[in-house]
Amino acid sequence: MAFRDLSDWINGLELEGELAKVREKVDWNLELGAITQETFDRKGPALLFENIKGYENTLCTRLFTGSLATYSRMALMLGVSKETPYKELIEIWRDRCKHRVKPIIVDSGPCKKNILKDKDVDLFQFPVPKWHDRDGGRYIGTFDGVVTKDTDSDWMNVGLYRQMIHDKSNTGLTIPTGQHIWRHWRNHRKVKSDMPVAVAIGWDPVLPAVACAPVAPGISEYEVMGALRQQPVELVKCETSDLYVPASCEIVLEGEVSTDFTSFREEGPFGEYTGYYCSVPASRPVFHVKCVTFRDNPIYQGTLEGVPINEDHIVSSVNHSVAIWDLLDERMTGVTGVNVDSSTAWANVFVQIDNSYYGQVHQVAANIWSSDLSNMIGKNVIVVDESVDVYDLRKILWAFAYHVRPSQDITVFPGWVSYLDPVVHPKDRIAAAVNKGERLLIDATRPFDNPKTDEWFGLKFAPLAYPDKHTMDKVKRNWKRYGIPD
Question: Tell me, what's the pLDDT at 346?
């Protein structure tokens, strides 16, 4: 099911009982962020704030957040039942992305209804929160699509990179080392040109869901969005550049980022996805907004970062699991499940294998750690076999308790860890974007090299103390007869 625009998505959530409209006056300064956090902690609904202090008569008066903060809403985004299990959401994402759908270019769209340029640009017309008290400012870019284009190809990237408001027409823009926007910025710097940027805010929920996904270089995120929604994305050309944005999105910021280091301004800190303030205020690139286009009565969309499990952790647990599973399938055999669980903000990767050959466990870690994805994903890798449900953390801990021989099954490996990892003290960092650290592999599969023994009924490992399948199937068929409430 494809959603026409953000309003269509919000209406759909309301019909499903997945939306709360907050009509009480709320302060954009900290209070709105705290309400959002409490809602996340309670696994509550998406929130539409309709009465924000100081924004009663501005160009934009409403803020939407928590769009994809539960797996039930991730399922609705994909047009399937709210009860669809997490594992199936990963499988659906994987399957659809095998059939990318090219976007369609249209002449205009609702996002062009209002156009402000140059001196008329005022980012403070939008109810951008200060989410946390230690944040360096108000972050307008937290759950959107940042569009850039390569200098020597047609590759247009849509990513998710934070933007802190400096003044009416300038924001900071993080350009993390190694990420696709960084490649584009470096290529623009080589030819001594500023980099055009467009930020699309508020549309079909696939926009931020794909923008934060590890899509391979050179592949259009718009084609991936089309695959997930099973309908082409309608794009419209920006007013000030050759970039394209969804024609029916709420708000578009257009401008450019200088490649001159002397133009940088101090940005940060920001409460990060790890749940900590890992980065420090630093001199970073500036996004100069030259044009803003928007719908009538637009809705601003953002999200709260911080301690898991928040909205981005839910989204990324699905799209990161897909990326790691696809990577492993390209490089090895026997992978039967991947869970980049939301609880650990993609530091931990849990992989299930068929345990069919010696060395398979080590291949899993070697393949993850040798890929570009390991910059942010998979500091710790835990591998289980098919006797353990890789999507149930309790079962993984059970396997850790009884399958692991510490002297043989725990491997420490030197390498980089994310520069946002708080385990590395600032005094020990070796570069602005890289930390020297260690990675961990835990083999929680049943020992592969055990001999069979009569003491364990002819098996290599102690058999499960669980009712046999025939009896359990019988009980499940007859469950209602027992009169036991579910």
Answer: 92
pLDDT in the model for residue 432: 64
Q: How far apart are CA 416 and CA 418, in angstroms?
A: 7
Tokens of 50: 């309709």
Q: What is the biggest distance separating any 2 CA atoms in the chain, rounded to whole angstroms?
A: 83
DSSP output for 451-483: PPBGGGTTBSSPPP-S--HHHHHHHHHTGGGGT
Question: Is residue 313 within 8 Å of residue 212, measured between CB atoms?
Answer: no
Q: Is 408 exposed, middle or buried (0-12, 13-18, 19+ CB in 10 A)?
A: exposed
Q: C-alpha angle 378/172/202, rounded to 5°?
A: 75
Question: Bridge-partner residues for 71, per DSSP?
Answer: none
DSSP string across 60-118: --EEEE-TTSSHHHHHHHTTS-TT--HHHHHHHHHHHTTS----EE-S--GGGSEEEEG
The stretches in the chain having pLDDT less than 50 are: none
Cα 142 from Cα 94, distance rounded (Å): 25
Question: Which is nearest to 30 in space by CA: 22, 19, 38, 21?
Answer: 38
Q: Which residues have CB under 8 Å from 95's CB, separation 6+?
A: none
> Torsion-angle region of residue 194: left (phi > 0), alpha (psi -120 to 50) or beta?
beta
pLDDT of residue 433: 65
Best CA proximity match to 224, nearest among 237, 208, 238: 208
What's the one-letter identity of residue 302? G
DSSP alpha helix (H) spans, 332-373? 360-369
Amino acid at 64: F
By the 8 A CB rule, do 360 and 332 touch?
Answer: yes
- Residue in this structure with the two tokens 């699905």, named with its chain if needed: 318
Residue 261: count of CB within 10 angstroms of its CB: 9
